[in-house]
Every structure is written in C-alpha cells, then in structure tokens.
Amino acid sequence: MLHASASASQKRRLLRERLASGDLLRLPGAINPLSAQLIEEKGFDGVYVSGAVLSADLGLPDIGLTTLTEVAGRAGQVARVTNLPTIVDADTGFGEPMNVARTIQVLEDAGLAGCHIEDQVNPKRCGHLDGKSVVDLGTAQQRVRAAVGGRRDPDFLVMARTDVRAVEGLRAAVDRAKALVDAGADAIFPEAMADLGEFEAVASAVDVPVLANMTEFGKSELFTADQLASAGVRLVIYPVTLLRLAMGEIERGLDTIHAAGTQAGLVDRMQTRARLYELIDYAGYNTFDSEIFTYSATEPTEGAT
C-alpha cells in the first residue's frame, strides 16, 4: 500500500545479487506505475523505464528533449510502487560531467536502482535509428567517471551504453565497451547489435554484465531469453513493448467507439474493475481507513486520569 515495502537500498542490493548469480534478468519497460505493479506480479526480475516511452508519453520524439526533472519524476513514481529494482534510461546524462554526477544523485534520491548513460552526441537519437553520432572516447569515459564519482550508494548500478556499433562497427564497439569498463562502468549496454554473435563478442570481452535491448522494429532480431543467455547476456529489456501494445489497443478501441457509437463491444477486452482494484490493493486502503482513519478511542469517564 502507498509505497513498496522494500527500500531503495534493498532493491539496489537485490539487483547486484541477482547479477552476481549469472542468471539472465528480464526487465519489461513500464509505461506507468500501475504497469510496474503488474510486471512484478507476473514474476519478472526488474522494471525498466525507457526514455523513448517517457518522451512518447509526453507527445515528443526521442531526441533528447526531456529533462532530468521529468525523467527522475516519472521514474521515481514507477520505482515507488514495486519491490523490484528499477533501471532508467538517463540519455547522455543531461549535460556536462558535473550534470551527469548530479543526475546520478537525483536518480538515487528518486529510488532508482540504476541507470545507463550513453555516448551519443546531443541531441541524441533513438538507438535503433540511422544517422547517429557518438562522442569521442575521452568524453564517453568522462561521463562514466562522473556518474561513478557522483553516486553515494555504491550499489547504484552505473551502466554505460555505447551506440558506436552503428557508426564504426563491431570492433569499435568491443573496444569502447572495454574502455568504458576501465572508466568504472558496472555494466555495458551495446546498442543495436546485428546478431547473437555480436552480443557474444561484447560479453566475452568484458567482465561485467551485458544488456540486450529487445525493442521491436529495431536493428536486432527479437531473440529469446535462452538465446541471449547462451550468448553471455545478463540483462534484457523490452523497453517499448507495453506502450506499443497499449497504444495499439487504444487506437482500435477509439475506432470502434467512433464507428459504433458505443464501447459495448469492447468490454470483454478490458481489464475489469475488480482486477484493477486487486492490482492496486483497494482492499488494503479500505482496511487502513476502517482501522485508523475512522478509529476513535473510548471517551474517558468523568474523573479518570
């Protein structure tokens, strides 16, 4: 009720422990706090907050238009409701190295378990689009060092994302991944890998966990969890999947209402009121009200002390 029972530090330790186990962790992208609760209920390992989803939710393209305040606010709302660790897309860190350090501290305060910082040039582009540009290696390493230097909780996961594969090829991506680990990155996010062999090449070159981005309509095939685990991947995100599912259904629903003049034909496709109340623990709030808010102590008898 209200907030998750686990503290932010507990969730960060959980993420570290799960990564140390060598298991593949699956993190669907939440589109709001309610979907994060559903992600936890369905048995996933963590929650992801996508910059592309957050931008789209604001009616904006994913080109670096969102601010740290917007990202931290929304990500914090998501992290608040789940006992799972939540990782957020922090784009390029929202500024120069000092800004990157502040970004980490703001995300820590918001209850996040980790984030990734990328090496694109501002304004950035969606990682699976053409025409990207990356900063030089020294600047990319500065961002990682600033992030690591800024954190106060050593369990907060600082992940380095590199988009260099699409610009300079796989060899450059492997070399940059190793250099970013040398700069202090706790994990590596190699964006837009072409096949499983490329994921394996990065994973075998570094001694930190590697993340795979299984976004639809992107550069990478939609590999299974077993395939990714066999390639040495330790985290997989499905960043925009829930948004695409939801918006597709919303669009079809609106078309039906417009054409039929009623939503009656859509009711069997809706989440029921009972299911919604179950998910948000409506009964728990009623119990709180009945036991505390409406509680009144017995009035003392006259003359009692």
Q: What is the makeup of the main sheet?
A: 5 strands, parallel
- The order of strands across the largest sheet is 2-3-4-5-6
Tell the overall outline: globular
Gyration radius over CA: 22 Å
Just name the CATH architecture of the largest domain: Alpha-Beta Barrel
Mean pLDDT: 94
What structural category characterises the helix and strand content? alpha/beta
Fraction of residues in helix: 40-55%
Regarding quaternary structure, how should these chains be classified? single chain
Fraction in beta strands: 5-15%
Instruction: List low-confidence stretches.
Output: none
CATH class of the largest domain: Alpha Beta
H/E topology pattern: HEHEHHEHEHEHHEHEHEHHH
CATH-defined fold name of the largest domain:
TIM Barrel
Total tally of structural domains? 2
Count of distinct strands? 8
